[in-house]
Amino acid sequence: MRGFYEDVAFRTNVVAKKTSLHLQHGLERFDVTPEQWSVLNVVDQKAPISQRHIAAFTEKDAPTVNRIIDVLIRKNLMTKAIDAQDRRITSLALSTEGKQKVQLIRNVVEETCTHFYRGIADTELEVYLDILARIENNLE
């Protein structure tokens, strides 16, 4: 068993890096990074949404999310609206261009994931997700 846990940790890290790199290459044609995609995806599913909630859903810190949002607004992929009753509250949503781009990106992400999980049954992926959740819980 010596080295077994280290091997598992190493393989997990290698697969995570390869997955991220593969996704990054798929997103390049859209001028979007995987980090930007994670924010766009959350906003697409949860809009209108606050920056604080985006940070929670993406598990990123507030300054990182703020930088990503600024870039996405400059790229005309997101819009920011200030609450009429409470000017401290800002709601974020996808712009029309953002909605179109998200759908194109989602298609690429789905194709990429289909490639990643080729030959693996859904039941096996469910077990894998359960194991990952337990490992993540142990890390908390």
TrEMBL record:
Coiled coil regions, renumbered to chain: none
SUPFAM superfamilies the UniProt entry points to: Winged helix' DNA-binding domain
UniProt cross-references to Pfam families, sorted A to Z: MarR_2 (PF12802)
GO molecular function, one term: DNA binding
InterPro entries linked to this entry: HTH_MarR-typ, MarR/SlyA-like, WH-like_DNA-bd_sf, WH_DNA-bd_sf
Domain HTH marR-type positions: 1-137
Gene Ontology BP term (one): response to stress
Keywords: DNA-binding
Name of the protein in its database record: MarR family transcriptional regulator
